[in-house]
Amino acid sequence: MDLRADIDSPITLKPLERAIVPTGLFMELPVGYEAQVRPRSGLAAKKGITVLNAPGTIDADYRGNVGVILVNLSNEDFIVENGERIAQMVIAKHERAEWEEVEALSETDRGEGGFGSTGTK
Ligand SMILES: O=c1ccn([C@H]2C[C@H](O)[C@@H](COP(=O)(O)OP(=O)(O)OP(=O)(O)O)O2)c(=O)[nH]1
């Protein structure tokens, strides 16, 4: 679903500035669910505006105003207007891990290789 700015007056984001933009959305998620705040591709592609902490996490026990941390990665000012669609949100179910401490991990071909260890071709 779309998240809209719920603000009394417009917010100006200068290049590289960020702001927490309230949405006026308050909710109660069931335990085992989270909401994820994501950028809108149109704003990103056309205006250089994205969600700084994407995906933002809304915890199930959060009861406050859902905020969107917008950042202006363009070289022009961007004005956030009240009611503007600034981000989108999905509700996601997640597992709860039970951690167990062990002496060794199972062996795999990859092992500790990561961060481009398989090359680019
Ligand atoms: O984009 C976001 C991210 C977070 N929040 C709210 C809901 C979330 O449940 C709470 C805490 O977020 P997070 O766990 O990402 O923050 P933290 O930096 O770990 O702070 P805290 O100590 O408050 O958990 O802030 C938002 O409204 N929008």
From TrEMBL:
Residues 9-119 form the dUTPase-like domain. Keywords: Hydrolase, Nucleotide metabolism. Transmembrane segments: none annotated. It catalyses: dUTP + H2O = dUMP + diphosphate + H(+). Pfam families: dUTPase. The keyword Hydrolase applies. Residues 101-121 are annotated as: Disordered. SUPFAM superfamilies: dUTPase-like (SSF51283). One of its GO terms (molecular function) is magnesium ion binding. One of its GO terms (biological process) is dUTP catabolic process. Belongs to the dUTPase family. This is dUTP diphosphatase. It comes from Flagellimonas marinaquae. The lineage of its organism: Bacteria, Pseudomonadati, Bacteroidota, Flavobacteriia, Flavobacteriales.
